[in-house]
């Protein structure tokens, strides 16, 4: 197996896409009210909701599995009230409705897929009863393309009616929805801005994929792309503005990663109360390889929260076996976002 690249799959469907090679608002727990100091020219006290910081800190230490290196938990601003993390563990099904090969979301009929997702949620809840486990549908809303397309951007935006379909599927099981972006030759800023009407919904969050960000004009899939901290900060700024403008609870931003070069200048990624960042360990392979990747690029380069991707097929090839929830909750730090493909 080549270094950490973990194998490419080329999808021959309605359009070219390299297979992702990576593999409600939270309970407002322990929210308290505080009162601001009254200004001399004011006759009213303004009530401000905040989280219970003592409870939050305890949860973050528990999530770090008592890491002793000082990396975890990461020092960051406290989130706005209603934050999903660390109060919930998100279990997501990933894919695209045009393809049966891009992930379990799209591979199985709706009823079968939702039942299987709920079964995984139950398994994770049993493996770690200290954190509430919730479902999510993680839909690839912008796919990288081998062909340039009419705008020469090497990306295809999915029709909004498909996003509407995913939202309708999520509603009966009270699932979150993530919209995932493969920018091709476009930019994070341009593609996220197109989805603002959906990201303004309380249960819709964002995923961005550096693998297909081709900054030097390469064809997506011909090499592994990258995001700089500035790219990721563009997504954070847009999400934070949406949260403030619409008075929402924090958004979750998932950033996929399975090599060192996929994320540049990680120390410059900003953390803000309106956005919760998950660095998701992508990539399929043996347990040994996947743990090594998690330690090298997720654990050693801390941003805020961590995720882990599991492949029903590609993690179970040869003598490989997919990680179980019981095994993953022993990792340091514990992944709080789990994605199945």
Characterise this structure.
The structure is a single chain. By secondary structure, this protein is α/β, with parallel strands linked by helices. It has a single domain (10-340), classed as TIM Barrel. The chain has nine helices and 15 strands. An eight-stranded parallel β-barrel has the order 5-6-8-9-11-13-14-15, surrounded by four helices. Strands 1-2 form a two-stranded antiparallel ribbon. It is globular. It comes from Flavobacterium gawalongense.
Chain-wise SSE layout:
Blueprint: E1 10-12, E2 16-18, E3 32-35, E4 47-50, H1 53-63, E5 88-95, H2 104-107, H3 110-127, E6 132-144, E7 155-157, H4 160-170, E8 176-181, H5 188-193, H6 196-199, E9 204-208, E10 227-228, H7 229-246, E11 251-257, E12 263-264, E13 275-281, H8 287-299, E14 305-310, H9 325-328, E15 337-340
Parallel strand pairs: 5-6, 5-15, 6-8, 8-9, 9-11, 10-12, 11-13, 13-14, 14-15
Antiparallel strand pairs: 1-2, 3-4, 6-7
Protein name: Lipoprotein
Organism: Flavobacterium gawalongense
Radius of gyration, Cα only, in angstroms?
A: 20 Å
Q: Please tell me the overall pLDDT.
A: 87
Largest sheet: number of strands, sense, barrel closure: 8 strands, parallel, barrel
Beta strand % = 15-25%
**Main β-sheet, spatial strand arrangement:** 5-6-8-9-11-13-14-15
CATH architecture: Alpha-Beta Barrel
For this structure, what is the CATH class? Alpha Beta
In the residues, how many domains can be counted?
1
Helicity range: 25-40%
Classification by helices and strands: alpha/beta
The stretches of 5 or more residues where confidence is low (pLDDT under 50) are 1-48
Say how many strands there are.
Answer: 15
Strand/helix succession: EEEEHEHHEEHEHHEEHEEEHEHE
Helix count equals 9
Shape call: globular
């Amino acid at each position: 197996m080549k270094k950490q690249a973990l194998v490419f799959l080329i999808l021959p469907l309605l359009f070219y896409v390299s297979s992702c090679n990576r593999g409600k608002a939270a309970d407002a727990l322990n929210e308290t009210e505080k009162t601001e100091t009254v200004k001399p020219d004011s006759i009213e006290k303004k009530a401000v909701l905040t989280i219970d910081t003592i409870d939050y800190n305890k949860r973050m230490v528990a999530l770090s599995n008592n890491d002793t290196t000082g990396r975890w938990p990461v020092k960051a601003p406290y989130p706005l009230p209603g934050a999903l993390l660390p109060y919930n563990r998100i279990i997501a099904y990933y894919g695209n409705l045009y393809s049966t090969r891009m992930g379990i979301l799209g591979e199985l009929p709706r009823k079968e897929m939702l039942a299987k997702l709920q079964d995984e949620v139950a398994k994770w809840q049993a493996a770690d009863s200290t954190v509430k486990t919730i479902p999510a549908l993680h839909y690839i809303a912008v796919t990288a393309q081998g062909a340039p397309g009419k705008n020469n951007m090497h990306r295809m935006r999915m029709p909004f009616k498909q996003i509407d379909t995913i939202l309708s599927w999520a509603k009966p099981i009270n699932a979150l929805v993530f919209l995932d972006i493969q920018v091709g030759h476009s930019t994070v800023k341009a593609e996220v801005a197109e989805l603002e009407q959906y990201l303004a919904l309380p249960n819709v969050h964002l995923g961005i994929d550096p693998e297909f960000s081709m900054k030097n004009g390469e064809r997506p899939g011909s090499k592994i792309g990258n995001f700089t901290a500035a790219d990721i900060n563009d997504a954070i700024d847009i999400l934070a503005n949406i949260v403030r403008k619409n008075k929402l609870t924090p958004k979750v931003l998932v950033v996929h990663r399975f090599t060192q070069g996929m994320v540049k200048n990680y120390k410059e990624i900003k953390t803000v109360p309106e956005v919760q960042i998950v660095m998701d360990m992508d990539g399929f392979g043996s347990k040994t390889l996947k743990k090594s990747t998690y330690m090298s690029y997720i654990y050693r380069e801390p941003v805020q929260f961590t995720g882990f991707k599991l492949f029903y097929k590609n993690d179970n090839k040869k003598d490989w076996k997919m990680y179980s929830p019981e095994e993953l909750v022993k990792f340091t730090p514990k992944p709080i976002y789990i994605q199945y493909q």
